[in-house]
Amino acid sequence: MKLFFAKLSLAALFALVIFPAFADEEVTFEANSPLTVSLGGAFRVEFALNAKPDGGTFEAPSFEGFDVLAGPAESTGSSIQIINGSMTKSVSHTYTFVLLPQAAGTVTIGAATVKVDGKVYRTQPLPIEVVDEGDGGRSQQQQPQGRSAGDAGRSEAQHQIGKDDILLRAVVSRTSVYKNEPLHVIFKLYTRVPYVNIVPESAPSFNGFWSQDLTDPNASRVSRETYNGKVYETRVLLDYLLYPQQVGTLTIDPVDMTVVAQVVIQSRNADPFFGTGREVLNVPRKVQSQRTTVTVKPLPDGAPASFSGAVGSFTMDTEFPEERLAANSGANIRVKISGRGNLTFVQAPKLQLPTSFELYNVKTTESINASSSGISGYRQFEYPFIARAEGTYEVEPVEFTYFDPQRMQYMTLRSKPLSLEITPDARGGGDAVVMQGRGMSKEEVRLLGEDIRFIKLGGAQLRSVTVPFLFSATYWIVLAGILVYFGVTYVCLRRQIRESQNVALVRGKRANKVAVQRFRVAKRYMEEQNRHAFYEEMLRALWGYMSDKFNIPMANLTKENVREELHKRGVSAEDSQRFTDIITRCDEAQYSPVESARMGDVYTEGVNLISRIESVIKR
């Protein structure tokens, strides 16, 4: 009897633990199907529910435009997991249909409904594109004579991926903006076939823009989108917020990537419902985004003197000290600029104080958030000062002007005027006086006459004295010269030792010498007509020079950061572009036949370019 009550208590405790865990699970009802199917080919549509449905409540859509070959086939599954004392249960209930499209075009499968505990749940409509491949598409499934089954499978997999099945697009929020007005650009991948990997080939280049990377590596949300009349699965790969810094037509360069698509090849005798006899192949496909141009308009003329380049929509709050202060005491004036715009570039408004006030360095605090719509937050400027002279002073209002792109006009924010009464120093310091337009205490005034000696009267008593060399003026001069010589020698030696220990500095100084040696090796390959070795050695010379000169590891070198480093050191944009062109020509020429004369041109351009860069950097 005791054993029976013990089992009953254990069962009740088990139910109390399990039931609350089950009750918190959210019910979802989703529909899954391929994005693209071929005319005449069967495919499956699944309606998945993560809960137990009420009996007989499932209602399938009408499937207009399709023939129902099989279904609904119901399948149910459940699992229970206990991890660290926490119990979870998952339930799945799936309704599967096998459909055959009737005609080519975009057809939408309607919503299915089901009830769970009396509550109705619906799926989202599914757009499916039906493609008529014709006889050509069916003939591709036949294995050509004289080719192996593996080659035929890879060829079939290549042909199953259409030219527009994988796209990479640069989506720009606007193509016409004002200078310093935010611009949002995303690089979005459009796919109509499954893929297993994405390999970046080049980084985005935003010449003429200030860029803020908004890419979230943890966000991989996939959505559906119709583009050019076709349904794609889309995924945002790169996300940037741009602020144009130049006026005119700016270009967003293309981005290259390699997408590894996954293609399933099914045998001709495979059952369309159970899907047996399938083979999965990985097919790499290179994609490139389009080149995008943005028109940057200049800001209108007639900007007020208080305008310093702020563009957006802002507000200004000011905090002034008490209107009565003691002389030689400090106080602060705070100005807070809040809103949305190019807050990163907002400068402290000018504060005009009386000449008898001492103004110290402005302290800046900020809170800035970057999003796809722009930068928002605030920048606060604190102006510390000390009032030296007593009296009553009027402080001019603080003015801040920004350009509002929505109103297309300059807006000026102005604080209230401030009247300060400076009382005598309460600590008993020196009385403050005003002298030549500035505050000056009496102790700062020097008394003339005390530092002038009276002329000595009387007869001069002069006598000649022979001074020995030891401890004479000449002796001390020579000794000082020797000490200075040894000091300079010691500093030079220490500097030489320190520079020899600085690996980055040594690499920078030896960069030109190492590049010349590699150019000589490349010239020997050119004379031997060894094209592949020549271009490989040219790439080593060019990339090696940039790596040594700028102290950047070879693995981190890109064309973009090389252009940035050259620009910082005063190298012209033409030479930076010429370096990129030479690198591109060498990369392409390694695997394509070229004439020996072209090797000579590449060699001459590379040597001349390094010489010009070296002369500019050493200047």
TrEMBL record:
<feature type="region of interest" description="Disordered">
    <location>
        <begin position="128"/>
        <end position="160"/>
    </location>
</feature>
<keyword id="KW-0732">Signal</keyword>
<feature type="compositionally biased region" description="Low complexity">
    <location>
        <begin position="138"/>
        <end position="151"/>
    </location>
</feature>
<keyword id="KW-0472">Membrane</keyword>
<protein>
    <submittedName>
        <fullName>BatD family protein</fullName>
    </submittedName>
</protein>
<dbReference type="InterPro" id="IPR025738">
    <property type="entry name" value="BatD"/>
</dbReference>
<keyword id="KW-1133">Transmembrane helix</keyword>
<feature type="transmembrane region" description="Helical">
    <location>
        <begin position="473"/>
        <end position="493"/>
    </location>
</feature>
<dbReference type="Pfam" id="PF13584">
    <property type="entry name" value="BatD"/>
</dbReference>
<feature type="signal peptide">
    <location>
        <begin position="1"/>
        <end position="23"/>
    </location>
</feature>
<keyword id="KW-0812">Transmembrane</keyword>
